[in-house]
Amino acid sequence: MTSFALKWIAVVTMLIDHIGVALVPRDSVWYIVCRSVGRLAFPLFAFMLAEGYFYTKNFRKYFTRLTVFAIVSEIPFDMMLHGEPVYWGSQNIFFTLLLALGGIAVFDRLAAGGRQTLSLFSLIITAFAAEILNTDYGAFGILTVFIFYRYRGERKALAAWFTVFTLVFAALNAFGNLPNTRSVVLSLIGGFAALSVIPMLLYNRQKGYSSKFWQYFFYAFYPVHMAVLYFMAGVMG
Question: Is the whole model's pTM more than 0.90, yes or no?
Answer without folding.
Answer: yes
